[in-house]
Amino acid sequence: MTEPRHAHDTDNGRYYTDPAGGPDLVSVTNVLGASVHKHALMPWAVKLTVEWILDHRMEVARRAITDRAALTKQLKQIHVDARDTASDLGTLIHRAAELRLLGAPFAVEATVAPYLAQLEAFLGFWGIDIDQHVEAAEITCLHRRLGYAGTADLMIWLPTGPGRKLELWLIDFKTSATRSAKDVYPENTQQLAALRYCETVLLPDDTEQPMPKIQKTGVLNLRAKSHALVEMPAGRDAHRAFRGALVNALWHHAAPSSYPALLAPEQPVPARWRNFRKVA
Known about the structure:
Elements: E1 7-10, E2 13-16, E3 25-27, H1 28-35, H2 41-55, H3 57-66, H4 68-101, H5 113-125, H6 130-133, E4 134-143, E5 148-158, E6 167-175, H7 187-196, E7 200-202, E8 208-210, E9 216-222, E10 227-231, H8 236-254, E11 261-263, E12 276-278
Parallel strand pairs: 3-5, 6-9, 11-12
Antiparallel strand pairs: 1-2, 2-3, 4-5, 4-7, 5-6, 7-8, 9-10
Helix pairs in contact: 1-8, 2-4, 3-4, 7-8
């Protein structure tokens, strides 16, 4: 996964360190990961595993008898490996996109090249001059009062207003090797709203500025052979929904991981129990 500046992993997921010295701030994606159930993940994992079994059915039949434990372990790992591979590719694409938008030199890896070509197509279709129209790329956004932070992929001026007037967009990149370029998830709206209504942005030298006034928000889906900018309605209602998810996530992060079992006064303690108490 991408590791933004000031971000670090904890036992409760990603948090951001506040350069000003305040308490750590939970990441936007951490909040949504803890609070939003991704309905598509389980069918995807099952489909991937079933396809592997069908493609290796003779091996599976043999190992089901001779090597059952190792086979089971391998089957459970298939969707994990696929997810990690996709995440690694997404990280490479995000990094290449950031360097391109900042005008920095970089080498284009073969796996990244098709996606970067779609970013170039997007820039070309919209007539974007990165020196004039790119406001920021991979910029850290903070909301200290609510206790969260996140990284905005792109703030860019696009001619989408009346008479092709320039408007400031907040855009999040999404990459996939399988999904349509038109597909988005509902929680993408909450992610954009959380960033849109942050209080502060951090510049590269860690000085601060107020969050720019964002006029439009959207997801730029980058695929190997296509791309699509999908406008998302990341308004105050979506931000209220995110704040509910934030409360839920922080509750889970602070909750104990286990609780003692309650035994009756004369009930014997099972040998394998460690935490328990008896009714007085």
